[in-house]
């Protein structure tokens, strides 16, 4: 019985201590933050429209993301923020194989590719709400993206003749719009755990891709153009420095 009383008293003391700490943390006013987080990058629908004269048969798969962000509250509710996010996504080449099987029936084909690398720098206003040790932010952003389209390679045999189609990787930039939301929970006077969701949408043109067709011992190059509407949703968590 004595052990039970000791446990109950210990729980009560811990509860009181936690309540006191939460009360103190909830009354400390921080105007700025710097956040470092990591998570997943999910391809979603873009707000931008594609170009029917410059289609593409490859698309992005789910990948990883890293983000550094910072913001400063100018008034009680409104502030400005900026973030840099880098996403690394796999590549789906299934459509490449499907299309060449339709245009060259009778062959057997395999495909390989690199990864999409997408970097975004965005900034904009945000609105914040506070409830005790919890902080909730919502934002709209605009900025610039750097997109690397991966290399692709199709390899197979068409009527016993080896055939390979290689397309080079390329990098280009474009304007970006987006939005996002964050939740932060204070754990000490100057640090908080953070969760965020950020959406970006852009459209990037690759006007000078080199496609190399090799049939047997014969080889030829062709310049092609692709336009990629890109939408990415980054979900992540990390640590915030509050000041």
Q: Could you explain the architecture of this structure?
A:
There is one protein chain. This protein folds into two domains: 1-29; 31-242, Beta Barrel (Porin). It contains two helices and eleven strands; from the N terminus they run αβββαββββββββ. With 243 residues, the protein is mostly beta strands. It has helices spanning 2-26, 94-103; strands at 32-44, 59-73, 78-92, 108-113, 116-131, 134-149, 152-158, 161-167, 170-186, 191-215, 218-242.
Short key terms for the protein model shown above:
Porin; mainly beta; 14% helix; 8-stranded antiparallel β-barrel; 2 helices; 11 strands
CATH architecture of the largest domain: Beta Barrel
Provide the structure class: mainly beta
* Text of the CATH class of the largest domain: Mainly Beta
Number of distinct helices: 2
Radius of gyration: 25 Å
Look up the CATH topology of the largest domain. Porin
Low-confidence stretches: 7-19
Choose one word for the global shape.
elongated
Number of DSSP E strands: 11
**Strand order of the main beta sheet, please?**
1-2-3-5-6-9-10-11
Measure the end-to-end span: 47 Å
Main beta-sheet strand count, sense and barrel state: 8 strands, antiparallel, barrel
Number of domains: 2
Q: What is the averaged pLDDT score?
A: 90
| Beta-strand residue fraction | over 45%
SSE ordering: HEEEHEEEEEEEE
Secondary-structure map with pairings?
Elements: H1 2-26, E1 32-44, E2 59-73, E3 78-92, H2 94-103, E4 108-113, E5 116-131, E6 134-149, E7 152-158, E8 161-167, E9 170-186, E10 191-215, E11 218-242
Antiparallel strand pairs: 1-2, 1-11, 2-3, 3-5, 4-7, 5-6, 6-9, 7-8, 8-10, 9-10, 10-11
């Amino acid at each position: 019985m004595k052990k039970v009383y000791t446990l109950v008293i210990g729980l009560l003391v811990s509860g009181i201590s936690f309540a006191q700490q939460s009360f103190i943390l909830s009354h400390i006013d921080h105007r700025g933050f710097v956040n470092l987080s990591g998570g997943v990058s999910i391809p979603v629908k873009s707000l931008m429209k594609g170009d029917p004269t410059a289609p593409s048969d490859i698309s992005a798969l789910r990948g990883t993301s890293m983000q550094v962000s910072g913001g400063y509250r100018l008034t009680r509710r409104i502030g400005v923020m900026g973030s840099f996010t880098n996403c690394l996504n796999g590549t789906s080449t299934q459509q490449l194989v499907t299309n060449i099987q339709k245009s060259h029936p009778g062959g057997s084909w395999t495909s390989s590719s690199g990864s999409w690398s997408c970097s975004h720098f965005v900034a904009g206003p945000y609105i914040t709400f506070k409830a005790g040790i919890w902080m909730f932010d919502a934002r709209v952003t605009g900025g610039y993206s750097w997109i690397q389209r991966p290399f692709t390679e199709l390899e197979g045999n068409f009527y016993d003749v080896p055939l390979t189609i290689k397309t080079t990787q390329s990098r280009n930039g474009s304007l970006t719009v987006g939005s996002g939301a964050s939740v932060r929970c204070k754990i000490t006077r100057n640090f908080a755990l953070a969760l965020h969701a950020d959406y970006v949408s852009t459209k990037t043109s690759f006007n000078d891709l080199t496609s190399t067709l090799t049939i047997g011992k014969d080889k030829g190059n062709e310049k092609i153009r692709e336009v990629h509407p890109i939408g990415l949703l980054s979900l992540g968590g990390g640590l915030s420095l509050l000041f």
